[in-house]
Amino acid sequence: MPAPFFRKGGGPRVCEAVSMETKVPATAVAPDPTHPKPLLGRIAVVTGASRGIGSSIARELAASGAEVIVNYVRGAEAAAGVVAQIEAAGGKARAEAGDVADHDSIQDMFGRIKERYGRLDVLVNNAGILRDRTYKKMSMQDWHEVITTNLTSVMHCCHFAVPMLLDNGWGRIINISSFVGQMGNFGQANYSAAKAGILGFTKTLAIELARYQITVNAVCPGFVETEMWKSVPANIQEKILDRIPMHRVAKPEEIARGVRFFAVEGDYMTGQSLNINGGIYMGW
Asked: Does residue 113 lie in a domain region?
């Protein structure tokens, strides 16, 4: 059975320790944001990193020096492409399969990461899916698939990542939520509930982990220029743009820079939400 995050008396953790020959020494010192590669030597996991926002986050963290684990579930070829892009730019990356909706699959993935690297510094919970329906048409399958992949997955990944961050004495957890979790959106009751749940989870975990020099924050994107956005008919795009004060959608790289900020410069920020949404939501 997996161990809890914290335990008294030095009981076993989720992932078995590896030999001292393979374990990278823990680094309990925050990155220097003035360094050209402030995450040099750090290990970062980005879930759902084979495409869209996740791939941009992986490239951004790698450009800052981190060795990035590019998680994917079915897009092996796309994940390999992201790794190739990072390596071509002089960075380090490795693709790792793991279904964030499957507890055992994620346990195996973090076990492999523990065995290979001996530690973890940054976790970005980005993976997510859509099953948009009006509430009247939404099936229980639509509900459960989105809640499991978008919300329960965050618990799965943190369950195995947090013990590694505790061993390290320092860490960053960055959860990708959404403006939809803050204000709701027509036809997205499941997605809205999942993304709102991420915000509550983020705040509670931030309280519990702050004493261990581990910060937990969320990024809340608005509409983003991804393949999904490009598939939206032009007349619908224009209606959406009319709702955004800046009258454009975000570039994935803009979201990635927000994640980098939390990883590199957000030393005194925890339990916070960074809204990168062009003004579509301006709540306190």
From this structure: yes
Residue 28 lies in a domain: no
pLDDT over threshold 90, residue 228: no
Mode of pairing for the β-strands spanning 67-72 and 92-97: parallel
Residue 11 lies in a domain: no
pTM of the predicted structure, to 2 decimals: 0.89
Mark whether 268 is an active-site residue. Answer: no
For residue 149, CA distances in Å to 1, 8, 49, 133, 157 come to 22, 31, 14, 17, 11
Q: Indicate whether 137 pLDDT > 80.
A: yes
Distance CA 59, CA 61 (A): 6
210: CATH: 3.40.50.720
- Is residue 243 situated within a structural domain? yes
Residue 135, pLDDT above cutoff 50: yes
Strand order in the sheet with 92-97: 92-97, 67-72, 43-46, 122-125, 171-176, 214-221, 273-276
Domain count, the chain: 1
Candidate list 117, 135, 191, 281, residue with the active-site label: 191
Cα distances (Å, whole numbers) of residue 164 to 16, 119, 136, 169, 218: 10, 6, 43, 9, 20
Quote the domain boundaries for residue 149.
Answer: 43-276
264 pLDDT band, cuts 50/70/90, is: very high
Using CA atoms, how far apart are residues 89 and 108, in angstroms rounded to an integer? 29
User: If we measure between CA atoms, which residue out of 33, 35, 95, 92 comes closest to residue 66?
Assistant: 92
Confidence of residue 27 (pLDDT cuts 50, 70, 90): low
Sign (positive/negative) of CA torsion 90, 79, 5, 108?
Answer: negative
Structure tokens at 134: 């009006």
